Amino acid sequence: MSFRIAPLIVCALAFAAAPYFLPEFNLYQVCLIAGTALVVLGLVVVTGFAGQVSLAQAAFVALGGYGSAVLHSFWGLPLWIGIPLVSAIVGLLGFVLGLLTLRVSGHYLALVTMALTAIVQLGLIYSDPLTGGAAGMPMPSFEMFGFTLSEGRQLYFAIVPTTAFFFVIVHNLQNSRYGRTLAAIRQSPTAAQAMGIDVLQFKSLAFGASAFLGAFGGGILAVLSTYLDPAQFGIPQSVYFLTVAVVGGLMSPLGAIVGSVVFVFLPDFLQSFQTYLGLVFALLLLCFILLRPDGLISLWQSPRGLVRMIRTGGAN
Using CA atoms, how far apart are residues 52 and 64, in angstroms rounded to an integer? Predict the structure, then answer.
């Protein structure tokens, strides 16, 4: 038990102490990591747990950001209500879309989700009165109980606990009956169906959860960027999120955080190669698929598994 509580205590202490020794920009980067990890967490559920290839994450991110901005701009709904509300609607929409589209699989499913991303992006461009069209629209400031949260230090206390909350939910989901059912579907949909599992319904639930997390993360990232541009939500951005998930580790919620840390800090280390950043990301994706398909998180899990095996005398 102590081995499980100790990391939680360390995380809680680090969370409380960080604002006292990290500068403003680093706190902003921590918020950016949290928002990106939330989006990638959706891919962990639908692709890692359920085995469904999705390139629609950028579309869900766009709907989360634009939806909450429109609700605030036209109806005055505060973002702290608008982001969860829009995410719930997008999650429901994702579930319905899953029922309609998840009858196909493999590269056909990838093409369907890719088409969804393209449709949403075009919809944003041609909805000038609502979204500002190709020019985009400013993101309203994040206000809560009369206080405006605009600095990284202020947003840190709202964004990081929210991400931690969803991280714990997804982590518990992986070890639950629902998580084991998704694993069975990933390994053999035919065998799972023969066992009486409604494969389409479970796949759609995973797709809906992915849409919810993507939209929630999109709302957070929109608050951090302060401006919404439809060019940011195309197919390349979906590939970017998938790359973050693969590099971090698709099968683990912790992999979403590890991958986000790498991809938030990597551009800072490659200041002189900004023009080739896309190429670097593509090479990273290729290298990890070929050499380390379980992602960076497997580097930590492998020694831990070895230690467990030594302790149990190889009983497992």
Answer: 22
Q: What is d(CA 201, CA 170) in angstroms, rounded to the nearest whole number?
A: 18
Contact 64, 222 (CB under 8 A): yes
How far is CA 44 from its chain centroid?
Answer: 8
Count of C-beta atoms within a 10 Å radius of residue 169: 15
Confidence (pTM)? 0.89
**Which of 39-43, 55-59, 168-172, 192-196 comes out lowest in average pLDDT?**
192-196
Residue 146 class from Cβ within 10 Å (0-12 exposed, 13-18 middle, 19+ buried)? exposed
User: In a 3-state reduction of DSSP, which class is residue 149?
Assistant: strand
> pLDDT tens digits for 127-141?
988 888 899 899 988
Burial of 165 (0-12, 13-18, 19+ CB in 10 A): exposed
Residue partners of 264: CB distance under 8 A and separation at least 6: 29, 32, 33, 36
- For residue 147, what are the β-bridge partners? 144
Instruction: Give the Cα-Cα-Cα angle 53, 285, 39 (nearest 5 degrees).
Output: 55
Give residue 63's region: left, alpha or beta (phi > 0; psi -120 to 50).
alpha
Q: Which two tokens stand for residue 40?
A: 């990638």
Asked if residues 69 and 223 have their Cβ atoms less than 8 Å apart, the reply is no
Is residue 76 scored above 80 in pLDDT?
A: yes
22 burial level (CB within 10 Å; 0-12, 13-18, 19+): middle
DSSP result, 67-90:
HHHHHHHHH---HHHHHHHHHHHH
Whether residue 316 has pLDDT greater than 50: no
